[in-house]
Amino acid sequence: MNEQEQARLKVFLVDDHAMFRAGVRAELGVHVDVVGEAGTVAEAVTRIVQAEPDVVLLDVHMPDGGGRAVLEAMRRTHPQIRFLALSVSDAAEDVIGLIRAGARGYVTKTISPEELAAAVRRVADGDAVFSPRLAGFVLDAFSARPEAQLTDPELDQLTNREREVLRLLARGYAYKEIAKELYISIKTVETHVSNVLRKLQMSNRYELSRWAADRRLV
C-alpha cells in the first residue's frame, strides 16, 4: 500500500447532507485527495465517471434510490471503482442490501477520521471492511440462511424509502413520528405504508411488524 499512499488515494463523497460532506472533506482530506462530491443519485453517477476516484464513500439513504441506486448504475460500467458505505444506519437489512449491490464495506458515521482513512485504504487494496458489529450481519447472511437472507424477492420490491418507513412502523412509531424522523409529510407516510401493504399483500401494520421482525429489519 506504500506506493498508493504516496500517490494519495482519490476519494469521492456521496451524501445528501452538504454539511456532513464538508466535515468529511475537511477531516479525510488530510489523508487522501477528495476529488468530488454529490448530493443526489443523478449527480453522483455523472460526477463519479468524470472524477475517476479509487474509492467512493456512499451514503445509504438518499432520495431516488440512495446508495444502492448509485451502485447498481456504476458497477457494470466501472467495476474498477470500489465503494465503501458510510451511513448512520446500522440495520442488518441496509448492510446486506449494500453488499449485495456491490459495496466492498460498510462503516457507520460514528467512525473516527483516522479509522475512516484506514478503511478507505483497505477497500482500495481490495479488502472488505466493516464496523465490528456489522461484520456479524454479513457472516450470518452467508452462513446461516444464505439464500433467504441474500435473496428476498418480497423485500427487493420495496424502495429504500418504503423500507425506512416499514422499519420505523415495525418499531412502533406513529405516522406523525415517522414523518418527523424522515422529514416527510404524514400524507407521504400514509402513501408509503399503503404501497408496502399492497406490495406485500398485507392488510394492516401489525402484519407488517411481524413480517419485518421475522426478517430482522426492526
UniProtKB/TrEMBL annotation:
The modification 4-aspartylphosphate is found at residue 59. PROSITE patterns: HTH_LUXR_1, HTH_LUXR_2, RESPONSE_REGULATORY. It comes from the Bacteria. Pfam families: GerE (PF00196), Response_reg (PF00072). GO terms for biological process: phosphorelay signal transduction system; regulation of DNA-templated transcription. The keyword DNA-binding applies. Keywords: DNA-binding, Phosphoprotein. The keyword Phosphoprotein applies. InterPro entries: CheY-like_superfamily, NreC/VraR/RcsB-like_REC, Sig_transdc_resp-reg_C-effctor, Sig_transdc_resp-reg_receiver, Tscrpt_reg_LuxR_C, WalR-like. Residues 151-216 form the HTH luxR-type domain. Residues 10-124 form the Response regulatory domain. This is DNA-binding response regulator. It comes from Planosporangium mesophilum.
